[in-house]
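Retro notes, structure queue

What went well: the backlog is down to a handful. What didn't: a couple of records were mislabeled last round, so from now on we paste the full input next to the output in the thread. Example, using Histidine decarboxylase from Zootermopsis nevadensis:
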Amino acid sequence: EMVDYIADYLEHIRERRVYPAVAPGYLRQLIPESAPLEPESWDDIIADVERVVMPGVTHWQSPYMHAYFPALNSFPSLLGDMLADAINCLGFTWASSPACTELETVVMNWLGKMIGLPDEFLHTRVNSTGGGVIQTTASEATFVCLLAGRTEAIRRYREQDEELEDAEINSRLVAYCSDQAHSSVEKAGLIGLVKMRYIESDEHLCLRGDRLLEVIARDKEKDLIPFFLCATLGTTGACSFDNLQELGPICKSEKMWLHVDAAYAGTAFICPEFRHWLNGIHYVDSIAFNPSKWMMVHFDCTAMWVRNSEALHRTFNVEPLYLQHENSGLAIDYMHWQIPLSKRFRALKLWFVIRNYGIKGLQKHIREGVRLAQKFEALVLADQRFEIPAPRHLGMVVFRLRGENHLTERLLKRLNARGNLHCVPAALKGRYVIRFTVTSQRTTGDDITRDWAEIRAVAAEILGEEKKPIVAARARVPLAETRELNASFGSSLLLANSPMSPKIVNGSFAAIFDNGDNVLEEFSRMFTRFRLEAKDSPAMRRRIKGILMTGKQFSLDSRMDLVQGIISHGGVRPRSEPTSALPLMEEDSVDGADS
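Corresponding output:
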C-alpha cells in the first residue's frame, strides 16, 4: 500500500500546491497531545498522512519547486534505500559489514573517475593514502576537513616547538572563505573554535588569489596561523566559482588545507564540458559534493574525497578493544574517516542510480536542467522590467525587478503566497535577488513558460500598485486600543501627529505571508459583513473601496487593524443613526493625487 501511495504521489505531484499554506503550529492541532496507549490500525495511520502531514509539506519533487538547490530522488535510489533500511547494518568497521565498506570504496572510485578527479583521490593507487567516503551532508564534510586541517597545523607547529600547547596554537589558527561561501563554513569555524575570515569576492562573485594574499599577510603580521581555506564551486547565492588555479598555489606555499565545497555543481562535472571549473584540482586536499542534490540520489548522501586519509585517522582515530578486528589496518574502517561511529549502507542507492542511468543517462539529465535554465534566462532577458545581476551558471538563474530592493522582495512574497511556484531570495552585494533553480527532473519547457507567465503577472500587479496614489486613512481609535490592536495584528498601526488618530501605514497587500490563507479568510469574512451593514451609506462604501484598492498603502494586517478599530467603536452606522455619528475617516490625497 505504501509503495502504491508513493508511486501515486510522485505521478501526480504537479497537481499539488508546491508551497504549503499553513501557519506555525498547525500540526499540533491535528493530532493528540499524547501517544496512543493501544495500537492503532494501519488504515488509520496511513489516512493521517494525507490529513496531517501532506498539508504542511513543501513538495521538493514538484516541477514548480525552484527554491534552494535540487533535492532529487529516483526509483532506483528509493529501492536502494529501502533495501539498506531492510538490511540495517552499521558499517563502522570492515568487520561490522564487509559489503557496506567495500561497495562504498568501489562506488566512490567510480564516482571520482566520473567527475574527473586525479588518481591520488582514489582508493586504487598503490601506496596511495587518498580515497573517498560517503558523509551525511556537505556541512559535515566541511567540518571534518576543517578539523583534519586543524590537527595537521597543530602537529606541524608542535614539531617546531614541543613546549607549545595545543590550545595556544589553536587560539592563533585562522581559516578563510569567500563572502559567498555557504553558512555551514561559518558553523564549522564556530564549532572548531577557530577564527574565520570572509574575503570579499570580485565583481563576478569569485574569490581571487590577490585578495587572499592580502588578508593572509595582515593575519601573519598579527602572529596568526593561516591553516584552512574553503573554496566554493557553485555558490549558494549565485552559483559562482572560486578560482582554484589562483588559490591553490597560495595554499600550497602557506601549508594551508584547501577544501572544495562543490555541493551543487559537483554533479555537473560528470559532463566534460563543465570540468574547466576544476582546473587547479591538483592543489586541493579535499573535495565534496552532494549526489543527493542533482544526481537523483536520496538525501542524505555526500561524496567526499581526500588526498591524505592519514590526516583523518590522526583526527578521528579512537579504537577501543571492542571495535578492533583481525583485519584492522589491512581494510578500511570508515569510523576513522567521519565524526559518527556508525554508518548507513548509503552506497547501495548510489550504486543503483549509477547502474540504472549509466554515465550517459546522468549526462542527459544534467544537460536538460541546464537547457531549461537557459530558456528561463532568455525569457527574463527579453523583459526590460527585469535584470539578471550575475551570470547564469548551470541550472540556476538569479533575477530581480529593476529598481529598489523592496520591489523584488514584494514580488517574491506574493509569488510564494500564491503557492503556484516556490523560490527563495539571496543577497548579492546588497542587491535582493530571486534564485530560480531547475530542481526537478519532472520540469519541462512548458513548465518554465508557465512559471514565467506567473512571475510576469505578479510583477505587473506590483509595478501597477507602485504607480497608484498613496492614500493615508485615519480613524479615531483610542490610544490604548491602538496598542492592543498592534499587539494582536502586528506593527502596521503607527501613531500620527495626533495621539488619538493612528495612521495606517507601511507594507503591501503581499505581506500576508505571516499568517497565510487563514488571515486572508478572516479578512474576507470581516469585510463582507462590514460592507453588508454599510450598504446604505455611499460614503462608507467609498471608504471601504479605498481600503481594498490601495495596495501600496495597506498590508493585510493594516486593513484588519482598521476594520477592527471601526467595528469595536460602533463604526457601522445603524439605519436610524445619521452619518455624522460615524467615526471620522479621512481620505487624504498625497502630492495632489485624487483620492
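Agreed that this is the format going forward. Reviewer comment attached to the example: The domain at 1-60 is CATH 1.20.1340.10 (dopa decarboxylase, N-terminal domain).
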